[in-house]
Specification:
Blueprint lengths: L1 H13 L6 E6 L2 E6 L5 E3 L2 H9 L5 E2 L24 H7 L3 E4 L7 H4 L5 E3 L7 H15 L3 H22 L5 E7 L2 E5 L7 H6 L15 E2 L2 H7 L3 E6 H5 L6 H5 L2 H4 L2 H4 L3 E3 L2 H5 L5 H17 L3
Parallel strand pairs: 3-4, 3-5, 5-6, 7-10, 10-11
Antiparallel strand pairs: 1-2, 7-8, 8-9
Helix pairs in contact: 5-6, 6-14
């Protein structure tokens, strides 16, 4: 703790006075930050995903981004949850972006460098994702690229909704080894219903962070036309039972989704770790569109 305190004190003493700033919208309201920062440390993977899509230079991140396409940014800044304050002090970034799992660290990090919370969470993931793209476009002088990215997302949503027409309902489940939780329209994964237009196979599910724990009997009784699956173990690189193994049992096999080969295994890391990131959103919509188009009779 003494080393952290020393690092904070040194950073405060050496903090530069920014000659040019801009105001952007964050998860906690409007913030004034350095305009077009040359160096940015990013702890939130949805933010890093979108900044990468916008081709923002000068990015650095944590030791494990969990996503292959973001691995080039891996560094010594800390983890998804905990910044390395000494490393941050040595890096002297113009801006630090936190969010989600690291959101509680905004205040202590702000003593080292300008820091903002860009969390994407809750029911309106797509709306928040759009807001973040717009904010980053303004912050990094990438407004044209941001506008093009938003247009791509609009096109992808239109395509997946067209593919979903007349395709029945869906149940979203997350597996964690042998355990299964279900998520409804009001949950962190509810944007999959909003984006695709697929109605809920089971209404009234718990909208909490961890979803509603369900049994295989529940899945059979709900009998979804589509089963959309997120494998938490695969997302975090855990050595656990896979979603395919977990769901391969007699009860799930009785569902319309299983019998019609309408089980969609999403890229778990993109949805679970980088949910709301522009590329993660586009890739997920692409997987849904391909699956739904293949399910057309």
């Amino acid at each position: 703790m003494r080393l952290i305190a020393l690092a904070l004190s040194a950073a405060i003493a050496a903090a530069p006075a920014w000659s040019e700033t801009t105001r952007i919208e964050t998860a906690t309201g409007t913030a004034e930050v350095p305009a077009n920062p040359a160096s940015t440390v990013v702890f939130d993977m949805a933010a890093l995903d979108t900044l990468d899509a916008l081709e923002v230079p000068g990015l650095a991140s944590i030791g494990n981004t969990y996503l292959d396409y973001l691995s080039d940014y891996e560094g010594e800044a800390g983890t998804l949850f905990e910044p390395d304050f000494e490393a941050l002090n040595a890096m002297q970034p113009d801006l630090v972006i936190l969010g989600g799992r690291s959101a509680e660290q905004v205040e202590p990090v702000s003593r080292l460098a300008p820091a903002i919370d860009m969390t994407i969470w809750g029911e309106d993931i797509l709306g928040q994702a759009r807001d973040r793209i717009t904010s980053y476009g303004a912050l990094y002088d990438r407004a044209d690229a941001a506008e093009a990215l938003l247009a791509q997302i609009d096109d992808a949503i239109a395509n997946v909704q067209a593919a979903a027409e007349g395709q029945g309902d869906a149940l979203i489940v997350l597996t964690n080894g042998p355990k299964v939780s279900a998520y409804g329209a009001g949950s962190r994964f509810g944007w999959l219903h909003a984006a695709s237009g697929l109605p809920e196979a089971a209404e009234g599910l718990d909208a909490s962070t961890h979803g509603e724990a369900v049994s295989f009997e529940f899945i059979r009784e709900v009998n979804p036309d589509w089963l959309i699956v997120i494998d938490r173990g695969a997302a975090i690189g855990a050595e656990s039972q896979s979603a395919r193994s977990t769901l391969d049992n007699p009860l799930v096999r009785e569902t319309a989704a299983w019998q019609n080969d309408r089980i969609v295994y999403l890229d778990a890391a993109r949805v679970y770790i980088a949910g709301g990131g522009a590329q993660a959103t586009l890739d997920t919509l692409g997987i849904l569109e391909d699956a739904l188009a293949g399910g057309k009779s």
